[in-house]
Design a protein that fits this description.
Elements: H1 5-14, H2 20-25, H3 31-34, H4 41-52, H5 63-69, E1 79-85, E2 88-94, E3 99-105, H6 115-126, E4 131-138, E5 150-154, H7 155-163, H8 172-189, H9 193-205, H10 207-215, H11 220-236, E6 241-243, E7 250-253, H12 255-260, E8 277-284, E9 289-297, H13 303-315, E10 320-324, E11 328-337, H14 344-372
Parallel strand pairs: 3-4, 4-5
Antiparallel strand pairs: 1-2, 2-3, 6-7, 7-8, 8-9, 9-11, 10-11
C-alpha cells in the first residue's frame, strides 16, 4: 500500500514515543558538552596532556604515556609534559631517557603551513640526540603531510586506551570527569555506535516521514537572504558601508568605527583595502546561530592602529570567539541562536538589536579611549 505524505507523517506522530530512546540516551548531563567544549582543540589538548602527565593528580600514573609510547624499561617518572611548547600541542620529554613524544592534535581544523614538518624540525633542533615519537591525532586517524615520520592516531584509539584503565580505582571526582570526557568523545567526536543503531532503527521504520521532514527542514538561505536585505537597507540609509565581495559572509564598515580606527594611506590590508577592520555577519548552519563580529587585520598597521587594536582586544577579552591570531583579531560583538525558529520579520528585529549592541560597543570604545588619553 502506497501511503500519502500526510499518512506517513501521521503514522510517525502516532508512534512518536519511538523517539523516547533517543531522548533518554541524550538527556544525561555532560560537563564538557554543557560548557561547549566538545570541539575545542585547546580543551582536548589540555585534558589529554593532564592524562598523559605521569605526575598528574589523576591517579593513572604513567598508564597513558606507556600506552602512547608503546615501550618498556623506561623511567616514566622522568618525563615532563609541556603544553604549546614552540606551538606544539603536547610534548612529553625525558632528559634521563633522552626521549621526546610530540603530539599534534586536530579536531575541527586541518594541518596548515606544513606544521608537522616544521614541528619535527624544531624538535630536532632542541633535542638533536633524543629518540623521538611523533603522533598526529585526529577524530578519524587521517594521515599528516609527513606520514613517514608522524604516526596517525584516532580518537577511537584514545577511547580504547582510556577504557582499558581501571577507572573504579581512581578518586570518584576524577573518575566522573574522565567518564564525562569519554562520553563526550563517543557522542561528538568519534560517534556512538549504540546511538547510531537506535537512530537507524527509527529511520528504517519511519523513512518516508523522516525524509519529508528532512526535505522541509529550515534552511539558512532564508536567514542569509533576510540579513542581506537588512544590510542593504542600512547601507541605503548611510548607517553602514556594505561589502558583498565575500561568498560565505557579509561585511561592512560604519562611520563611527572608521573614525575610531583610521584608514591607512594605501590599500595595504590583507583585504587590499585602506581600512583594517570589517564587521562581519555570519550565519552558521550546524549551530543554528548568526552573529556579528569585528575582524581586525594587523598586517601593515601603524603604531596608532596597533594601540587601538590592543585597546579593543583588552575591552573584549572575555567574549572573543576567535582569539588572537597572527593576522586577525576577532572580538565578538553580538549573537543570536536558533534562527530556525524565526520568521523573516523576527530575523530583521534580531539584526536591529544586534546592530544596537554594535553601536553600544563603539561608544564603549570611544569613551574608553578618551579616558586613556
Amino acid at each position: 500500500m502506497v501511503l500519502s505524505p500526510e499518512e506517513k507523517i501521521n503514522r510517525f506522530v502516532e508512534d512518536i514515543c519511538c523517539l523516547d530512546s533517543v531522548t533518554e540516551y541524550d538527556s544525561e548531563f555532560n560537563f564538557f558538552r554543557a560548557l561547549g567544549l566538545s570541539t575545542n582543540e585547546i580543551c582536548h589538548s589540555g585534558f589529554l596532556a593532564w592524562l598523559i602527565d605521569p605526575h598528574g593528580n589523576h591517579g593513572l600514573g604513567s598508564y597513558m604515556l606507556k600506552k602512547l609510547v608503546g615501550q618498556d624499561n623506561i623511567d616514566w617518572d622522568s618525563f615532563a609534559v609541556r603544553r604549546e611548547w614552540e606551538k606544539i600541542d603536547i610534548l612529553a620529554v625525558s632528559e634521563t631517557e633522552k626521549y621526546v613524544l610530540c603530539i599534534e592534535n586536530k579536531i575541527g581544523t586541518g594541518e596548515h603551513t606544513n606544521q608537522c614538518g616544521r614541528y619535527k624540525a624544531t624538535t630536532n633542533i632542541y633535542f638533536p640526540d633524543y629518540r623521538k615519537e611523533f603522533l598526529f591525532l585526529t577524530p578519524n586517524g587521517r594521515k599528516s603531510s609527513d606520514p613517514k615520520n608522524w604516526r596517525s592516531m584516532s580518537y577511537t584509539d584514545i577511547l580504547e586506551i582510556i577504557d582499558g584503565a581501571n577507572l573504579d580505582e581512581l578518586a570518584s571526582d576524577v573518575s566522573i570527569v574522565i567518564r564525562h570526557y569519554m562520553d563526550m568523545l563517543r557522542r561528538d567526536i568519534v560517534g556512538d555506535e549504540e546511538l547510531k543503531k537506535i537512530c537507524q532503527k527509527i529511520y528504517v521504520k519511519h523513512k518516508g516521514a523522516l525524509d519529508l521532514i528532512i526535505a522541509n527542514k529550515p534552511h539558512s538561505a532564508k536567514v542569509k537572504e533576510t540579513l542581506r536585505i537588512w544590510a542593504e537597507d542600512k547601507a541605503e540609509k548611510g548607517e553602514i558601508q556594505l561589502d558583498l565581495s565575500e561568498k560565505t559572509y557579509m561585511r561592512f564598515t560604519t562611520p563611527a568605527m572608521s573614525k575610531i580606527i583610521p584608514d591607512s594611506e594605501k590599500p595595504d590590508s590583507d583585504w587590499k583595502t585602506k581600512n583594517h577592520y570589517f564587521y562581519e555577519i555570519w550565519v552558521k548552519e550546524p549551530d543554528h546561530d548568526f552573529f556579528m563580529q569585528i575582524a581586525l587585520n594587523t598586517t601593515n598597521i601603524s603604531a596608532e592602529q596597533r594601540s587601538i587594536f590592543d585597546h579593543i582586544m583588552e575591552l573584549r577579552k572575555d567574549v572573543q570567539v576567535a582569539g588572537k591570531g597572527a593576522k586577525y583579531l576577532n572580538p565578538f560583538v553580538a549573537k543570536h541562536q536558533d534562527w530556525y525558529c524565526l520568521e523573516s520579520d523576527d530575523i530583521w528585529i534580531c539584526a536591529d538589536r544586534m546592530f544596537d549592541e554594535l553601536k553600544l560597543f563603539e561608544r564603549e570604545i570611544e569613551e574608553s579611549l578618551k579616558k586613556s588619553e
